UniProtKB/TrEMBL annotation:
It comes from Dehalobacterium formicoaceticum. The keyword Magnesium does not apply. SUPFAM superfamilies: Rhodanese/Cell cycle control phosphatase. Residues 122-208 form the Rhodanese domain. It holds the Pfam family Rhodanese. InterPro entries: Rhodanese-like_dom (IPR001763), Rhodanese-like_dom_sf (IPR036873). This is Rhodanese-like domain-containing protein.
């Protein structure tokens, strides 16, 4: 009799454990997959999606077609723009993979002097931003550049750079202040920022 009772109790405990597991799964208490964040460069834009080439090794895919129909956008989307994207964990296998965007944020894009020169000479309007001191600017600057010293960005950016979606190319003397300025402008809401380093590496002419 006692043996039967022990067997019955074990069976009851076994079914109780199964019931608890099923209850957890059905109530959504099971651990959920986390959202995925990666960085990339926009290659193409359609009405509800963007094609992105992934930079870095944060994901297993090198390109993604991102559904942006319901994504929060903190950037004006343009081809060539560097972005950080958070997506849902569900990845639909294809090439490129298809994913659903949650949030899109701008990132500072580091470019070479040659790439900056090509942008300046191109058809699209750009702002060349010099973030050195006034005395450095007067000693020699890139033709057409606008002076906004790094230390004055917080106070004067809205006046000097009223369009937060404009394409801004930033330089300083050696590249340190330009990187700081690019980061600050992005934090202030500017969406299309490029850092091309220092004027000491600018192989083209300057003016006084």
């Amino acid at each position: 009799m006692r043996i039967r009772m022990r067997i019955r109790n074990k069976i009851n405990r076994h079914f109780l454990m199964i019931f608890c597991v099923m209850l957890l799964l059905s109530s959504g208490c099971a651990q959920k997959e986390e959202n995925i964040t990666f960085r990339g460069v926009i290659e193409d834009i359609t009405e509800n999606s963007i094609l992105v080439t992934v930079t870095g090794d944060s994901t297993d895919f090198d390109k993604a077609s991102v559904d942006i129909s319901h994504a929060e956008r903190k950037v004006q989307l343009s081809v060539g723009q560097g972005v950080e994207i958070t997506i849902l964990p569900e990845i639909r296998e294809s090439y490129p993979v298809q994913v659903t965007g949650i949030e899109i944020r701008p990132i500072n894009q580091k470019i070479s002097a040659q790439e900056a020169k090509a942008m300046i000479d191109g058809e699209e309007e750009v702002i060349i931003l010099d973030v050195r001191t006034r005395s450095e600017y007067q000693a020699g600057h890139i033709e057409g550049s606008v002076l906004l010293p790094n230390t004055e960005i917080k106070e004067k950016a809205a006046q000097v750079l009223p369009d937060q979606n404009a394409k801004i190319l930033i330089y300083c003397r050696s590249g340190n202040r330009s990187a700081q300025a690019a980061k600050l402008l992005l934090e202030m809401g500017y969406t299309n920022v490029y850092d091309f380093g220092g004027i000491i590496d600018w192989p083209y002419g300057i003016v006084q």
